[in-house]
Amino acid sequence: MPRVVVVGGGWAGCSAALAARRAGMEAALLERTDLLLGTGLVGGIMRNNGRFTATEEALALGAGELFALTDSLARHRGLNFFGHHRASIYDVTQIEPRVAGHLRQAGVEVHLETRVVAAEVEGRRVVRVAADCGPDQERRWFGGDASVDATGSAGPQANCARWGQGCAMCVLRCPSFGGRVSLVARVGIGELCARGPGGTLGAISGSCELLRESLDPALAAELTRSGVVRVPVPPDLRRPGHLEFKACQQYALPEYGRFLVLLDNGQAKMMAPYFPLAALRRLPGLERARYLDPAAGGRGNSTRFWAIAPRDNSLRVQGTANLLCAGEKAGTLVGHTAAIVTGWLAGHNAARMALGLEPLSLPRSLAVGDLIAYSQEETRRPSALRLRYTFSGSVYLQRMRRLGLYTTDPEEVRARVRKTGLEGALGVRPSR
After folding, report:
1. What are all long-range contacts of 379-386, with beta carbons under 8 Å and residues at least 24 apart?
2. So what's the pLDDT on residue 243?
3. Strand runs labelled E in 160-272
4. Residue 328: Cβ-neighbour burial (10 angstroms; 0-12, 13-18, 19+)
5. Cα(113)–Cα(369) distance, integer angstroms
6. 204, β-bridge pairs
7. How does DSSP classify residue 360?
8. 272's torsion region: left (phi>0), alpha (psi -120 to 50) or beta?
C-alpha cells in the first residue's frame, strides 16, 4: 500500500495524515514533542465570521472530520466579541487525547517525540526522512511515496530570543524537545520569512492562557456562564503598541487595547500576546492571576511566520515532485480552520501523488480554494508578507464579502460545493 509521511503534528499535520488515510494510504505522522496539536492546545476559536463558511465547505467536500470533532467538544457556541460573531470555543483540556485517539482508530501511525532532522532526495522526490526518536534520540528512517511538511513557522527558540522578547516557555517547548526543523529547508528549498506591520521579522502569537483557578471565583463563574468576559483596562495600564506585533491581526482591533478579553476554552484564553503580570494583577478579578501557557506570558510569546514554503495552489512545494505543505508553512495563514483545510488538501494530494495522479487545486468559487490561491499570489509581493490571511477577519474576510463567498447558510454552501462536482471528493480514495 502506498505510504504518506507527514512531518509536524499540529492541526495541519493531523488533518493531512487523516486525509491520506481516508484516501487509502498508509500514513505516518511524526511529531517532535509528546503532544499533538501544537498551538491548538492554547487556541479553541472556531466558526467565527468566515470560518463558518470554510467549515461548511470542508464538511461538504468530505474534509470535515476534525471540524465535527471540535464541534462535539465546543464549550460555547454562537459567541460574539469585538469584531467576531457566532464563534464556538472547543475545550483545550479535552481536544488532544480525542484527536490522538481518532487518528489511531483511523489507522494513522502516530510517532511522538520524533524530531525530523534530515531528508534523502532522489531527483526531485523525497524518498525518506531521518528522525531522532524518544528520550534516547535513536535515529530512525521513515520512507514514503509522498510527504507533507506541516512543521509550522514558529520559533525556534533562537528566533524568539532575537526577534521576540525571549523564550516564553510556550507550548512548543523547544528547550525540551528541540526547535522546529523544516522539512522543506532540509530538502534544500529556500523559504520566505514574513514581517510584522512595523517591518520587524516574524510576528508574535496573539494570545495566551491564564490558569482558570487563579481567577477570582466570581469572574471564573461568569466566564463559565457566558463564555466571554471583557475586563476594562485603565489608560495607565494599556499597551496599544503590542497590537501591531500580533500574528492574528483580526484580533488587533483598538478594542483589544482598551479591554482584556477572556474566552472560556477550558482554561481562560487571554486575547493579548502578553501582559506584564504585575499590571495584570491590578485588574479586577485578576489579583491572583497566573499564566498557564506560555509560562512567561507577562514578558512575551512565541514568534511565528519564519518559514513559508514556495508552493502552487495544489500545495505542492515548488522544485519538488512529491512534497506538499500545509498550515502556516503554506503562507501567512492564521487559525485552526486554515490549518485543517490546507492540511486535508495536502494529505489528499499526497495520496494522489503516491498513486501517480496529478494533485487537485480547489476552484476559486469556494472560499477555501480562493484563500489558498490568493495567499499564494500575494507572497509574490514583498509588502504582502506583512499581511495575514484568515477566514475570520482582516484583509481576507473583506475579500470574502466583496466576492460574495461569505455566507452563514449551510445549504447555500452545500449547493456551491455541489456545483463544483467535488461534493465528498476529498473524503475517499482518489481515482482516475
Report:
1. 379/192, 379/308, 379/310, 379/331, 379/332, 385/192, 385/193, 385/194, 385/195, 385/332, 386/194, 386/195, 386/196, 386/197, 386/199
2. 64
3. 203-204, 208-210, 228-232, 259-264, 268-270
4. buried
5. 33
6. 246, 303
7. P
8. beta
- Measure the CA–CA gap between 48 and 266, rounded to whole angstroms: 18
Residues paired with 140 in a beta bridge: 131
Model pLDDT for residues 172-183, shown as the tens digit of each residue: 999 999 999 999
DSSP H or E run through 301: none
For the stretch 38-62, pLDDT in tens is 999 999 999 999 999 999 999 999 9
Q: What nine digits make up the cell of 19?
A: 486525509
* Selection from 335, 374, 284 nearest residue 343 by Cα: 335
User: Exposed/middle/buried for 225, CB within 10 Å: 0-12, 13-18, 19+?
Assistant: exposed
- The grid coordinates of residue 371 equal 484563500
pTM comes to: 0.96
DSSP assignment, residue 179?
-
Q: Is the pLDDT of residue 198 over 70?
A: no
Q: Give the start-end residues of each E strand in 211-353.
A: 228-232, 259-264, 268-270, 291-293, 303-304, 323-325
Type of residue at 397? L
Cell 505516518 -> residue: 28
Cis peptide upstream of residue 273 (ω within 30 degrees of 0): no
- Give 49: exposed, middle or buried? Use CB within 10 Å, 0-12, 13-18, 19+: buried
